[in-house]
């Protein structure tokens, strides 16, 4: 079956860049997403990338996709304390219909 | 605010009971998804409806069922509840089932 893996924890200093990584096994996914979940809150769509793209930039967020290595990353520039949350990588299922397969989530802790 | 509304926000019930979770998708969205987020299983896809019809089924237990009504709202019914059903249940929607999904705030179910 499909597998999406993320490291569980990342700690960065405020103002530094954060890089959250994700590896996956299903190479047929059309869309790859990053969602953010703050404590006690729902899932917020941060950004997504089409599988035919290598990079997408959206303000402080940069998504890089390496299809050969099946590796997706999210870079957050100038990380702020408000960025502290759990970040989920998600892929569309190869069976279509946009069913999402999620990673376990990376908890980002931003300290002064 | 994603535009997806879930009620109730919190629910506490006893083992063996039955509950109904409700989801109102974003205006105009025909597709509704249900996901379960638990500590041991992470985020798991349960089921998808599109314009009233079941479209895809994931790891949904037989004790669970869902439906989507003509006004496009959806309900997830959980019966014969067990302690292990305690989780955060998310609803998501999108217009046609092939674009990014927007998530509600979730319903936190606690079975005691």
Structure in a nutshell:
With 112 residues, chain A is mainly β.
Mean pLDDT of chain A: 91
Which ranges of chain A are low-confidence, i.e. pLDDT below 50, for 5 or more consecutive residues?
A: none
Structural class of chain A: mainly beta
Query: How many β strands of chain B by DSSP?
Result: 11
Largest interface, Cβ cutoff 8 Å: A-B, 23 and 26 residues
Largest sheet features of chain A: 6 strands, mixed
- Helix count of chain B? 0
Secondary-structure element order of chain A, N to C: EEEEEEEEEEE
Structural class of chain B: mainly beta
| Cα end-to-end separation of chain B | 31 Å
Shape annotation of chain B: globular
Indicate the proportion of strand residues of chain A: over 45%
Q: Tell me the total number of β-strands of chain A.
A: 11
Describe this structure as you would to a colleague.
- The complex is a heterodimer of chains A (112) and B (112).
- Chain A is globular, with a radius of gyration of 13 Å.
- Chain A has 112 residues and is mainly β.
- In chain A, strands 2, 4, 5, 9, 10 and 11 form a 6-stranded mixed β-sheet that branches. In chain A, strands 1-3-8-7-6 form a 5-stranded antiparallel β-sheet, with no helix packed on it.
- Chain A is built from no helices and 11 strands.
- Chain A starts with a strand and ends with a strand.
- Chain A has strands at 4-6, 9-13, 18-24, 31-37, 43-50, 55-58, 61-66, 71-76, 85-92, 100-102, 106-111.
- In chain A, a hairpin with a 7-residue loop joins strand 9 and strand 10.
- Chain B is an all-beta fold and 112 residues long.
- Chain B is 0% helix and 54% strand.
- Chain B has strands at 5-7, 10-13, 19-24, 31-38, 42-50, 53-57, 64-68, 74-78, 87-94, 102-103, 107-111.
- In chain B, strands 2, 4, 5, 6, 9, 10 and 11 form a 7-stranded mixed β-sheet that branches. In chain B, strands 1-3-8-7 form a 4-stranded antiparallel β-sheet, with no helix packed on it.
- Chain B starts with a strand and ends with a strand.
- The interface between A and B is medium-sized, with 23 and 26 residues.
């Amino acid at each position: 079956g499909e597998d999406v893996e993320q490291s569980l924890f990342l700690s960065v200093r405020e103002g530094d860049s954060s890089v959250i990584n994700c590896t996956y096994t299903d190479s047929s996914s059309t869309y790859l997403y990053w969602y953010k979940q703050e404590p006690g809150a729902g899932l917020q769509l941060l950004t997504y990338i089409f599988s035919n793209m290598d990079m997408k930039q959206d303000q402080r967020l940069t998504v890089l996709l390496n299809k050969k290595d099946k590796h997706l990353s999210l870079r957050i520039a100038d990380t702020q304390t408000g960025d502290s949350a759990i970040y989920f990588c998600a892929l569309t299922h190869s069976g279509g219909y946009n069913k999402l397969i999620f990673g376990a989530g990376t908890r980002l802790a931003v300290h002064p | 605010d994603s535009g997806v509304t879930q009620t109730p926000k919190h629910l506490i019930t006893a083992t063996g009971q039955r509950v109904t979770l409700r989801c109102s998708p974003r205006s105009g969205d025909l597709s509704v998804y249900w996901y379960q987020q638990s500590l041991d299983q992470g985020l798991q896809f349960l089921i998808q409806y599109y314009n009233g019809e079941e479209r895809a089924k994931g790891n949904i237990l037989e004790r669970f069922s869902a439906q989507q009504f003509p006004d496009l709202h959806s309900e997830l019914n959980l019966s014969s509840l067990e302690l292990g059903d305690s989780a955060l249940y998310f609803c998501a929607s999108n217009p046609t089932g092939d674009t990014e999904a927007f998530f509600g705030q979730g319903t936190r179910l606690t079975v005691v």
